[in-house]
Amino acid sequence: MQQEQESIKKVSGMYQDWFLDYASYVILERAIPSIYDGLKPVQRRILHSMRELEDGRYNKVANIVGNTMKYHPHGDAAISDAIVQIGQKDLLIDMQGNWGNVYTGDRAAAARYIEARLTKFALEVVFNPKTTDWQPSYDGRNKEPKDLPIKFPLLLAQGVEGIAVGLSTKILPHNFNELIDASIAHLRGKKFQLYPDFLTGGLIDISDYNDGLRGGKVRVRAKISQEDKTLLKITEIPYGTTTGSLIDSILKANDKGKIKIKKIEDNTAAEVEILIHLAPGISPDKTIDALYAFTDCEISISPNACVIHDHKPEFLNVTEILKFNTDNTLQLLKRELEIELDELQEQWHFSSLERIFIENRIYHDIEQEETWEGVIEAIRKGLQPHIAHLVREVTEEDIIRLTEIKIKRISKFDLDKAQQYIESLEDKIANVKHHLDYLVDFAVEYFKSLKAKYGKDKQRRTEIRTFDTIDASKVAVANTRFYVDRVEGFIGTSLKKDEFVFECSDIDDIIVFKQDGSMVVTKVDVKTFVGKGIIHVGVWRKNDKRTIYNLIYRDGKNGPAYQKRFAVTGITRDKEYDLTNGTNGSDILYFSANPNGEAEVVSVILKTHQRIKKLKFDVDFAELAVKGRSSKGNLVTKYPIKKIELKEEGVSTLAPRQIWYDPTVRRLNADERGELLGSFKGDDKILTINSTGEAKLVSFDLGNRFDDEMIIIEKWKPNKPITCIYYDATKDKNFVKRFVLDDTASTQVFFTNEDEKSEIKFISTDYYPMIELVFAKIKGVEREPEVINLEEFIAVKGIKAQGNQLTAYKLRQIVTLDPLPYEEPEEEEVEEDEVQPTLFDAVTEEETTNEEE
């Protein structure tokens, strides 16, 4: 009975021990890669198994799976999936058959239908039995590598993702050539930086990458281009998505009304091609922004570099992993050289013994010996006078090998050839010793050879960019109808029996003005009570300085009337603001909302009063300063007002808007980032010229996007000519043309590449462009360079004109010179959204910030 009691163990203790054992097993043996070779155990066993089966020909993946099961104590499905994952990374496995599609997410065919073999890169870099540490397999019948001796930062090249118990890892893939360059930089003691690169391409913002540490993140975008006004094309997708999941997210956004598309087509095969057809009247630029804001066209990825180091998990950054892998490669190369040196020295030692044995006919000394011991001793004595130069002592094993030399070999022995072979071994030994003495240089050359042999088709696919921040409220499509019940004081999207006011997005803010002079901003909702006496409802944008509100109010029940102009740039949501002087009984007599700062003229009609002779007078809001919303305003009259009537529609009183172009994010802005394009107002346009021969005229809307091929962007001046030099391959001549654009079409083509060898050599928007022609040598004679003023060379003609031939002589180069000076009329320099200085003062009130945003 006592013994039974002692054997009892609490379940809680068992659970604690067993769970820890299980967690350790999952972390070390399944989910987290080793820092030494960058592989999980199943991946390591697959590669080892493939090396066992390697004969230069393809093997059925089913056979590889079966052979791997000798080492991996899990199901065949897990092994098969792991092989496909390695193969799709296009580095270690040469694939044949249907291995699935990383773009569409289509699965590979069954293991019995597809074949694989190791790539030449894998055979050169991954394996070396002589430098491999071995351990027994799970059943003790075989040996498997503890870590493969990989001489390359494979972990960072392939990337890895795994979920263990209470632990996970996510290391993003990096570019093959950039990893090699970083390894070389580390070996030379230089700094380096590494950023992810994905097989699926796309765009990446690495501003917060934080070297791959926990807490960092990258933003990845699809590559979207505008084919025309109604068609967008996606040619590269974010890492971790497929064309199917991407299209699903777009359709969901369309169903929710975030974007409006007509239809979507998936033409993906070897390359990604998703066509998005837009509904009529939808802006392509805003749709692209909306795709990034509301769909998987932009995703955020959080790296988490966890690896197994010395049998325990560690969190490292990408730089530390690269340095460790490079140092490990250096040590592996050293071990290989040391092994090679030992082997060469052994070959030299025995070749020298063999030469001494045969040249000095020592084999004759054993003819009279009757015992084996006598034979050994006779050979030893015969060698003794000739072995002083050997690198080590002669052992009994060496003598036994000499006795095994066949008579045929002795009879055909050539001393000269033997000496040449020994000398070649000495050269190899000297070379290996040199490499050991200059190990870092040897490692650098090793990495360079890898890049030369295997890096030609491994250029960066993911373009590094800094992304602009997209305001979702500005790009969301107006997907809901908004109503107002002025009698009861309700607003919302469900009041369909009441007054319809506008269409808006369900993430917009709504501003409401009421008769008592109060104002409130609230989110779009189904039904919201804001109070009776609603006089205006509109969509409100944060920091909108161009929407100006004109107001005349009565201060108190019988007080004077005041007028004011103000903008609402910052608020606290659902907080009521008083726009009057705060006196009880105040009332709004006139109100208007002006999206571009318009200032109208109104007629004020007073009530009949014995002291007043002039009962009607005009008020021009253009003469009033734009101030803060809490300002008292200017006095209109102290007498009672009968009514106020609109006399004359107003025009904008805001100054031209200064616009900058930020080349980092390829967007316009009004925040002084990048290059100042100038001051814009009304119908002013921006000119862009790209390298394919297209000139475009676009508005200065801050939502516009600009393509990668754009080479010129500036404010368009209708009379300013564009100069182009192009080579016509069909005629084998260079032509010059000068032309101006008109505003009848947004896109105007001035060069058509009908022959692939035709190309644009020079484009300028300068008034007096200057070039220098450098001529080619003909029969050893070189013509003097010629400077040309292109404004004098050719007159301005039509955009379709061929132009004039530049020169009849063969050109070597066209050098761009500084243009001749030209004084353009000076534009009035103004601050953005300032009012005209002759009419207005600066805004004096600091608006409160939106606390909820």
Brief description of this entry?
This protein is of the alpha+beta class and 853 residues long. The protein contains 18 helices and 47 strands.
Quickly count the helices.
18
Main sheet record? 5 strands, mixed
Tell me the CATH topology of the largest domain: Topoisomerase II, domain 5
The share of residues in extended strands comes to: 25-35%
CATH superfamily of the largest domain: Topoisomerase II, domain 5
Radius of gyration: 40 Å
In helices, the fraction of residues equals 25-40%
Q: What's the level 1 CATH class of the largest domain?
A: Alpha Beta
Number of domains: 6
Overview of the structural elements:
This protein has 853 residues and is of the alpha+beta class. It folds into six domains: 16-187, Topoisomerase II, domain 5 (Alpha-Beta Complex); 218-301, Gyrase A, domain 2; 331-454, Topoisomerase, domain 3 (Orthogonal Bundle); 478-540, no CATH class; 545-645, no CATH class; 657-817, no CATH class. The chain is 26% helix and 28% strand. It has 18 helices and 47 strands. Helix 3 packs across helix 4 and helix 11 packs antiparallel against helix 15 (415-437). The longest helix has 42 residues, at 318-359. The chain starts with a helix and ends in a 36-residue tail after the last strand. The relative contact order is 0.06. Mean pLDDT is 87; it is low at 829-853.
